[in-house]
Amino acid sequence: MVTYPDAHVLDVVGPLEVLTGAKYFLPDGPEPYAVTLVAAEAGPVRTTSGLCLTADRSFVEAAADTGGIDTLIVCGGHGTMAATEDAGLLDYVRGAAARARRVVSICTGAVILAEIGLLNGRRACTHWWWCPILERRYPQVMVERDAIYVRDGHIWTSAGVTSGMDLALALVEADWGHEVALQVARYNVMYMIRPGGQSQFSAHLVAQKAEDPAIDGALQHILSAPGEALTVTALAARAGLSERTFARRFKDETGLTPAVYVETARVQAARVALETTARGIEQIAFETGFQSAERMRRAFQRHLGISASDYRERFRGPGAETPAIRDGPD
């Protein structure tokens, strides 16, 4: 984690609490994440709140370690613009990013990544107030103003402050699986649905919000059988409710309409299949309820800003073969 004077303390400790909290839900063994806080000098670094964080290593010391870095995280805060003029910080981030498996920015940390060119030609997000600044200063960055977090290849960016915790939860899910991420979310009381950027949320996390047994049953059925005909009529009948009552109670419980949630669950199921199997696009579309590759392509564009075939090319695991079938033009 890279920090600097006048960083936002939550940009640092929020994501790290989520990441390190995974240890409580994993079998006994090594810590899931070993954290090092890096700054211009080892020792205290004052944040905007007045609280001081203690950096473990200086940029010079950290750069001298030429070993690999799993995840490089750059925080944000009111000191971001001054940080973009700190040659030592920029040199360290540039070199560390080249050695990292993935690079992450929290809030206005995206400005630092943009300053050294890491976001050129990529989709990214940052704090809503800073989006126009990011667009104006770095026109080669494709800024997504409504996103809570964005993943483009190995680079992840998040919106303001607490959205860094949402991004960290996504990292936990990518590293340790859905169930561990769900446990971490529940432990940190992160199950509430944000009013915007809902395409970024896991359908499993949405399902944790429902307290109404009828709606909870519908959510679990959707997750377990995304390929079925999941119309409001069918779901309401399964729940023993009228269509109108079911739709109203569903929206009250989840913040989403049944149709939006069903599509979110189907996109999630398709993502897993694309990442972990070599099944064709058409087959996956049919199995996950989209019925056609074109409908699945449009859903991926709405939720993720990328086609299903391009998603597979970027995110498939090493065990999945390269499929021959694409899902149509973008």
UniProtKB/TrEMBL annotation:
UniProt keyword Transcription regulation, yes or no: yes
Keyword Aminoacyl-tRNA synthetase assigned: no
A single MF term (Gene Ontology): sequence-specific DNA binding
Pfam families, per the entry: DJ-1_PfpI, HTH_18
All residue ranges annotated as the HTH araC/xylS-type domain in the record: 216-314
Keywords, alphabetical: Transcription, Transcription regulation
Source superkingdom: Bacteria
InterPro entries in alphabetical order: Class_I_gatase-like, DJ-1/PfpI, Homeodomain-like_sf, HTH_AraC, INH-QAR
Protein name (record): Transcriptional regulator
Source species of the chain: Wenxinia marina DSM 24838
Taxonomic placement: Bacteria, Pseudomonadati, Pseudomonadota, Alphaproteobacteria, Rhodobacterales
